[in-house]
Amino acid sequence: MGRNCIGESSEQNICVEVACSTWQEWGEWSTCSAKCNFGISTRRRLCHGIFCPGKRVEVTSCHAGRCAMWSTWQEWSECSVTCDSGIKQRYRNCIGDNCIGSAEDMQYCETGVSCPQWTKWTAWSRCSHDCGIGERIRYRECSTAGESADSCKGQKSVRF
Question: Mind telling me which residue stretches traverse the membrane in this protein (predicted)?
Answer without folding.
Answer: none
